[in-house]
Amino acid sequence: MARESDEKALELPAGIAPAVILVEPQLAENIGMTARAMANFGLSELRLVNPKNGWPKKGVREAASGATHVLDGATVFPTVAEALADLNFVLATTARERGQMKRVFSPEEGMAEVCARPGQRIGVMFGRERVGLSNDEVSLADAIVTFPVSPDFPSLNLAQAVLLVGYEWRRASGRALLPFAGEMQTPPASREALIALFGKLEAALDAAGFYPPEKRDGIARNMRDMLHRMAMTEQDVRTFQGALKAVSRAMKTGGAG
Amino acid sequence: MARESDEKALELPAGIAPAVILVEPQLAENIGMTARAMANFGLSELRLVNPKNGWPKKGVREAASGATHVLDGATVFPTVAEALADLNFVLATTARERGQMKRVFSPEEGMAEVCARPGQRIGVMFGRERVGLSNDEVSLADAIVTFPVSPDFPSLNLAQAVLLVGYEWRRASGRALLPFAGEMQTPPASREALIALFGKLEAALDAAGFYPPEKRDGIARNMRDMLHRMAMTEQDVRTFQGALKAVSRAMKTGGAG
């Protein structure tokens, strides 16, 4: 998984992020959360077709939680055909089969298809909260995207569907970099440091009378196994040795020295 | 991408779905939408640690949009340690680096790790809406999951973070089947049917005087290219031929026959 420090090296093409088209969306909360989901994954072009009960809507900016730039840039169209007019390739999200002879993609497959069309203007259509897209609206799209939801509970919230598409687009386009990396960046401690640590630990446990005599070596080896699994770095070994030193001193003097 | 008809053949192991642990969640809407997101991807074990401003909360059932079975089954704990007690492997979701020497996974990598631990009880922790998890809480986890969000807008809504983890778990565990397939299931029309269609189309266009004489063959071949790209099935060819027949008849008789 690439980290953000690799981003400049990637030389990603500009202008291929798909437009998100909401057809007759109703709830301010859903539109606002759609804007937020888009911003989370680097999408910014929002098109609204004939929003129900007017536009702009009360409460939509709060629901966008700071992604108001997406709302401010949103374009409103009276019909689906007008919203799609300039696009070269269009995907329609549907939960149910529509009896149309269309390719059906998972979100991952759909976004791979998008990234295979550099320079084309792409749109992804999302339907009304309750009834989705009409069959006629679906017939204006090239292909369908559907979500691999549980058949026991298939109804995805509108903004959550947008989130999944944005997330998969970001992955497919090579931009899905994690903001930070883990400890794997630091190499494990040298064998010398580890063996020295084993020695100090076993000496301390011997002095504490911890080992039952007949089991001493077996238990010591089990503990070495545990320490191996800790995959200690040099710093970890120093920390552990510092703790052992304090404990060993306290055992000799009978208290914190 | 496997379709749901393959599901029985998969013989998926039971009991490996991770528990979702929300630490001091505040908004009813977020908890309800978390339950919905979990149900969408087949997660059902929700654990709430010390929900802010009490539990149950007004409005949480509405926000769950039918996923109330997840809410009804949710367990409430006073502390994180108690919520995690019975788990064998724990992931903590964080947006920022925490200065801890932990493995950091993308959601995809984290869920692959979960699926590599069949039979283990797994939990994924999600923090407070505003401030996330504390460093001490993160220190109780084995590893971190972070999301490949845009650095320009990294703040993911709590329920949306849960959705992404559920989605990636479903994919990693081989359950991410699409509810329906596309037209690829039907083979293309035979060459014989296609060639017959070319003949009928070209005869109709000849009769209509469509082709400029010196360009006739070139245009006819371009149209054959377009028809190839349509990837017509036998049924498509019959439909097209029916349309041609009606048009050809009307051209002879001067109107709809």
From TrEMBL, chains A, B:
Catalysed reactions, semicolon-separated: cytidine(32) in tRNA + S-adenosyl-L-methionine = 2'-O-methylcytidine(32) in tRNA + S-adenosyl-L-homocysteine + H(+); uridine(32) in tRNA + S-adenosyl-L-methionine = 2'-O-methyluridine(32) in tRNA + S-adenosyl-L-homocysteine + H(+)
Gene Ontology annotations of biological process type: methylation
Places the protein is found: Cytoplasm
Domain tRNA/rRNA methyltransferase SpoU type as annotated: residue spans: 19-167
Gene3D superfamilies referenced in this protein's UniProt entry, alphabetically: 1.10.8.590, 3.40.1280.10
Chief location of this protein within or outside the cell: cytoplasm
Keyword terms: Cytoplasm, Methyltransferase, S-adenosyl-L-methionine, Transferase, tRNA processing
Domain of life, per lineage: Bacteria
Listed EC numbers: 2.1.1.200
GO terms of molecular function: methyltransferase activity
InterPro entries, A to Z: Alpha/beta_knot_MTases (IPR029028), RNA_MeTrfase_TrmJ/LasT (IPR004384), SpoU_MeTrfase (IPR001537), tRNA_m1G_MTases_N (IPR029026)
Pfam families with a match to the protein in the record: SpoU_methylase
Subunit structure: Homodimer.
Family of the protein in this entry: Belongs to the class IV-like SAM-binding methyltransferase superfamily. RNA methyltransferase TrmH family.
Function comment: Catalyzes the formation of 2'O-methylated cytidine (Cm32) or 2'O-methylated uridine (Um32) at position 32 in tRNA.
The protein's name: tRNA (cytidine/uridine-2'-O-)-methyltransferase TrmJ
